[in-house]
Amino acid sequence: MKRAFILMLDSFGMGAAKDAEKFNDLGANTLRHIAEQCLADSAVLHLPNMVRLGLNRAVMECDGASIPGWPEDTKAQG
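The structure corresponding to this sequence follows.
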């Protein structure tokens, strides 16, 4: 039997919605802000399994740029 995993990450945004300006929410990207803070503290946010599953690709689709310190060319596996 094949398995499916659903990861629900409420409030774990990775890009602003198209109407974000109406709600004073431009630049919303929780994941990017966490990663940037890690870099400011001299560390890279280390989520290798999530990156292998395509998290950085999802961020790039939503936000137009990869997470600092994460490989851009990772293909989703799993």
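The chain has a mean pLDDT of 85.
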